Amino acid sequence: MINKLKQLVIYIFLSVWLLITGYPLVFLVQNSFKIRMEFFRNPVWSLPEKFTWQNYIEVMKSGFYIYFINSIIVCFISVAIIIIVSALASYAISRIDFKFNKIVYILFLAGMMIPIHSTLIPIYKITLSMGLYDKLSALIGPYVAFSLPISVFILTGFINDIPYELEEAAIIDGASRFRIFRDIILPLVKPAIATVAIYNLTLLWNQFAYALVLTSSPSKRILTLGLFEFQGQHGINIPLTLTALFLSVLPLILLYVFLQEHIIKGMTAGALKG
Amino acid sequence: MNKKELMNNKYFIAALFLLPAVIFSLVYLIIPIPLSTYYSFFKWDGIGAMEFLGLDNWSKLLSDPIFWSSMANNFKLVLISLVVQIPIALFLAVLLTRKIKGASFFKTIFFVPMLLSSIAVAFLWRYMYDPTFGLINSFLNLVGLEQLTRSWLGNSDIAFYSASAPIQWRFIPLYMIIFMAAISNIPKQLYEAAEIDGANNWQSFFYVTLPMLRSTVVNASVLIIVGSLKYFAMIFALTGGGPNHASELMATYLYTKSFTEMNMGYGSTISVALFLVALIVSVVFLNFSKKDVRN
Fold first, then answer.
1. Number of inter-chain CB pairs under 8 A, A vs B
2. N or C: which end of chain B has fewer CB within 10 A?
3. Considering CB atoms only, which of A113, A123, A205 is closest to B279?
4. Which parts pass through the membrane (chain B) (predicted)?
């Protein structure tokens, strides 16, 4: 009896949080199917009188799909570069004894403390002088730089755990460091690379400040900035804006549906190992 | 040195491996700090000529009440986040690690806010806060609490707290997952021993779970403290720092000064101040957490 009661109390608490977490999302979806006037006429929690895709069509027609493409391009290129650059650095820190390993490692980690917003003005200036302003490629440099500390941290930890004997034979055979890195280390750190990839992909997908400062024309907007500008233009049409909002969060949610455990592991990796 | 010797020199090889990472870090992480410091001595609109001001921007900063209130808001946010996120995340983690049906369903849904961008969360909450059409006021009207309805983001007395709520909402799942992982690592024997000693649920929480989670809680707190200095997008999209700077953070203030008012000299001064605050806080608290882990 007491156990039953306890269970009930647990479920009540969980359901309250379920409502707090889940209802805003339901609110988002259900109102995205309403037309503008209906939203003003009926209470916000009412179901749409008639389901309509009108808002979805209108959002896509406004050029919103370009923002998806831009976000995908920038995020994937950045993550690919992050993986290569951080794996190379982590290998040197973990395996080549060059006396300053510890200091170099700590300096990389110290990068985590720098608040990105305190670098916006110089990065804006640097981007202008490189001639990259208002180009998608302007975002890649800052994305890579700010993902490096945590990526080097995760990968170095992982490489440190690989037994050294695996490389010893190759070194005796006279294989170069680059071959050892490519043929022995890289295949072994694949799980860590997957974690680094997911961690950075989700983080960069939701990044906003750099795009705000480094791009200006609509054709160069990434998704977060596109949503921001869309809200600025259509904010009064609440159901339409909610539709854009829902579309903008859909890709990660879909990914989450299929790769839930990987996503949770990837997104909490920085925190769990720190 | 010929090519072969060079390729056998471990310093040279290490430098090659490190070179790409060092270049990215130098250009986008390290150099911006001295560069900002340099800009902070000038009056500059970002495009035109720079006019040397000496320490004028800095003395202006020290007597700028908005800067100080934005810094105070940053620290208030740290406090709110600690007091709200840690207990709720811990509570949910404890519930979800008990053997109950549907735990994985709840966990799956609870994590979703982490997937949304700060901009999406901000706009979602903006529509929940809408004075006329928002979910919150509509709900209060429905249950007969009209007197509680208000302009959540428009009233400068409460705007900061309203704007802090979505930050809590988004990040609680992160700490919930961290605590769940830590709880599942606690050896079962400890609970069995406590049970044999006659401990009830509360007692085994306070005498087994909590002490075993000590270092995790400390680490999570450090993450919250250091992270709270980095908030920008959510507040920027939700209130823009307003009304009348009521919800201003250091980052939103420096953005407005630099990129809206195009006063990049003064914006750089705020940037350097933000960097210094983050540096001091990080050094203090990272040290603190390291000591704790060693104990």
1. 250
2. C
3. A113
4. 12-31, 77-96, 108-128, 158-183, 217-238, 264-288
CA distance to partner chain B, nearest, from residue A42 (Å): 10
Closest residue of B to A96, CA-based? Answer: B14
- How many structural domains compose chain A? 1
DSSP label of B186? S
> How close does chain A come to B117, measured CA to CA in Å?
5
Closest by Cβ to A98, choosing from B10, B134, B223:
B10
User: Over 70: is that where the pLDDT of B295 sits?
Assistant: no
State how far the alpha carbon of A260 is from the alpha carbons of A205, A257, B121, in Å: 17, 6, 20
What are the boundaries of each domain within chain B?
53-294
Confidence of residue B294 (pLDDT cuts 50, 70, 90): very low
**pLDDT, mean of residues B53-67:** 93
The domain in which residue A171 lies consists of 58-273
Q: A231 at the B interface (CB within 8 A)?
A: yes
B279 touching chain A per CB within 8 A: yes
Nearest to A10 among B33, B35, B98 (CB): B98
pLDDT at B137: 86
In a domain, A178, yes or no: yes
- Taking contacts as CB-CB distances below 8 angstroms, the residues of chain A near B95 are 10, 13-14
pLDDT in tens, B186-229: 888 888 888 888 888 888 888 888 888 998 998 899 889 888 88
Read off the CATH number of the domain in which A66 is found. Answer: 1.10.3720.10
Quick check: A200 pLDDT over 80? yes
Please indicate whether, in this complex, the C-beta atoms of A88 and B118 are within 8 angstroms of each other: no
Domain-embedded: residue A261: yes
Mutation site for B-interface testing, chosen from A120, A133, A147 by largest number of B Cβ within 10 Å: A120
Rounded Cα distance between A15 and B106, Å, is 8
Q: What is the mean pLDDT of residues A48-64?
A: 86
Does residue A49 lie within any of the structural domains? no
Distance CA A52, CA A60 (A): 14
Nearest to A199 by CA among A256, A268, A105: A268
Cβ atoms of A28 and A248 closer than 8 Å: no
Q: What tokens does A245 get?
A: 């909002």
A74-133 tens-digit pLDDT? 999 999 999 999 999 999 999 988 889 999 999 998 888 899 999 999 999 999 999 999
Whole-angstrom Cα distance, residue B30 to residue B276? 14
ipTM of the complex: 0.91
**Which residues of chain B are within 8 Å of residue A20 when distances are taken between CB atoms?**
169
At the topology level, CATH places domain B53-294 in MetI-like fold (1.10.3720)
**Which pTM does this prediction carry?**
0.91
Distance of CA A126 to the CA centre of its chain: 24
Residue A187 lies in a domain: yes
Question: In Å, how far are A170, A212, B19, B55, B156 from A60, measured between CA atoms?
Answer: 55, 22, 43, 51, 36
Is B21 touching A (CB cutoff 8 A)? yes
Which residue does chain A place closest to B108, by CA atoms? A260
